[in-house]
Amino acid sequence: MGSVVVSNIVLLVVAALVVVGTLSSLLAARFGAPILLVFLVVGVAAGEGGPGGIHFDDYWATYMVGSAALAVILFDGGLRMRVASMRGAILPAVGLSTVGVAFTAALVALVAVPLLGLGWMEGLLVGAIVASTDAAAVLFLVRAQGLRLGRRVGSVIEIESATNDPAAVFLTVLLVEMLTSSAGGHVGDPGLVVVFGALREMVLGAVLGVAGGYALVALLNRVDLPGGLHPVMVVGVAVLLFALTSLLHGSGFLAVYLAGLVVGNRPVRAIASITSFLDTITWLCQIVMFVMLGMLVSPEKLLQYALPALGVAAFLILVGRPAAVFACLAPFHFSLKEKLFVSWAGLRGAVSIFLATIPMLAHLPMAEVYFNVAFAVVVVSLILHGWTMGYAARRLDVALSDPDPGVRRFEIDLPGQTEMELVAYPVMAATPVVGQAQLPEWARLMMVVRANETLTPEAAGPLKTGDYGYVLAPPKRVHQLDRLFRPEEATPLDDSAAFPFVGEVRLGDLASFYGLAVPDAELGLTIADAFADRSDDKPAPGMRIAYGQAVIEVRAVTDGRVSYVVLRLQAGKLKRSIARARRLLGFPPEQDEDDE
User: Among 7-21, 294-308, 418-432, 434-448, which is the least confidently predicted range?
Assistant: First the structure.
């Protein structure tokens, strides 16, 4: 009976922690705190050194749970990535995830050795542990603040997150093995071992990931399962693929990301229920993983290493990460602002703490140092980056204002086919679709619910506020449909200060004529090219790019390219632009210009 009581107490505590962590996310969102940091704090508070007083030091269980959680999170990230948006981002991202990881680890070792009193091999291990980024958290933070990163910058950051974890894991495991070896020289030349070992893991992970993704697509489309079991099978296959690839000495992290990428870019049955389920399960994975990692920490021991750990964190954030980013992106013609944002987007998350459990499992003499330093670096990064990521994206002009806030959508899979799905939208006031009876040619209005009455499209006529519209559309284009059901801004900009242009006008011409703050790297682009580069999907009416006090808004799209836009200027900017235009055209200045 005693064991039963203990088991029930454990279940009670674990469930309570999950509930507390979930509810605390509401407070975090309200007050702007980084949500992942809240989960860590809940874990620390529940641990032996906190008010909860729970003794938990099972690093093996944490490693197993963390592996499964990261596998699901990375699979979900790949599932939501579109191959078209990866154009021009693969090579720079892979450079960051390989050379960048090694370069960052070496730079961090330069300060970790004197600050922590370590040897060079131990300093490199500290660098390897904190070298990988948590780009999924970066993208979440930016989107949660109503922004969407430009296509190339967002793709580089996301692809880097999927490919730098394998390099960091391999480098960490190699250094741990070398430190546990009595001689330390049996593995041959460490540099060659790192290069060839990382290449082997990435190649094997890539092959098994792509093969596993196509196998999962075939399985989903050919096997009839009872309703609700498709998402469960997908999660099971993702974890299975991760474990199998790792057993074969490949990169499990890369394999599950690529498998998700394949599934997300192929016609798949039950994709709506799969993505909906993954929304929930990835949140649960984040909560459980961060709470468990927090429970491993002793606040007293953490304080012992606080000062040197803060030094390592400051160097990593202000010097190590920027140096690696600027070096790796130098050949790829990124603008200064883009490099600065990618540097600032090096948020450290669960992976770093997860890697710090490996020395603990290997019983290295300095394992406690690695774990506490990694934890401190993650906390500093979550606080600093978590509160400033949105501001940095706006300040550096690398984000496109999200055109889809507040859209509610209900997706329904249609049995027997994968090319179309039924999507239901509530029709709210001030949405572009109000008053329209027709939708884009690739979407078909099937039914309208109005005042508890079900109507055919012909009987309903133009959509009205308060309706529910049921639309048949391809799954890959649903996000474009969202924009038609998004409420427009309550206080739109004054159209009297709007100037129309076709999409093939060069940004450099607009910048010289209107004095726009266009980055140097974009001066040679047309307006259509700029939107294509920043959009993760085909551009659509309503999308905007801000250049200082000016905004370019899409009004029409033809064959997937922006064909018509308006340039909107604030009053002060409009007056200065008119004065500039008069000077360029040779007209004398107006009287008030002379007075100024």
Answer: 7-21
DSSP letter for 417, please. -
The two three-digit tokens of residue 121, written as one number: 């091999």
* Angstrom distance (rounded) from CA 374 to CA 245: 27
- C-alpha distance from residue 244 to each of 119, 163, 219, 252, 410 (Å): 35, 18, 18, 8, 35
What is the spatial distance between Cα 375 and Cα 294, in angstroms, rounded to a whole number? Answer: 9
Spacing of C-alpha 93 from chain mean position: 14
450 forms beta bridges with 453
Give dist(CA 222, CA 57) in Å, integer. 45
Locate 42 and state its tokens: 């809940």
Question: Which residue intervals of 80-118 are DSSP H helices?
Answer: 90-116
Q: Which pTM does this prediction carry?
A: 0.70
Sequence-distant (≥ 6) Cβ neighbours of residue 367 within 8 angstroms:
359, 360
22 pLDDT higher than 80: no
CB 75 within 8 A of CB 46: no
More confident residue, 4 or 378: 378
| Closest alpha carbon to 158 in 138, 143, 131, 142 | 138
Q: Which two tokens stand for residue 502?
A: 């076709």
Tokens 């200027």 belong to which residue? 569
Give, for 591, the enclosing helix (H) or strand (E).
Answer: helix 591-595
Per the listing, tokens 């690839």 go with: 245
| In contact, 500 and 568? CB cutoff 8 Å | no
The string over 552-589, giving b where at least 16 C-beta atoms fall within 10 Å of a residue's C-beta and e elsewhere, is: bbbbebeeebbbbbbbbbeeebbbbbebeeeeeeeeee
C-alpha 189/C-alpha 422 separation (Å) is 58
Distance (Å, whole) CA 139 – CA 149? 8
Residues 253-304: tens digit of each pLDDT:
889 989 998 998 888 877 778 887 887 788 788 788 888 888 888 888 888 8
Describe the chain by its helix, strand, coil percentages, rounded to 5: 65, 10, 25
Interhelix angle for 229-247 vs 59-79, to 10°? 120
d(CA 219, CA 233): 10
> Nearest 5 degrees, angle CA 29-CA 133-CA 149?
60
Q: Is 81 in a helix, a strand, or coil? A: coil
Q: Under a CB-based contact definition with an 8 Å cutoff, are residues 406 and 256 in contact?
A: no
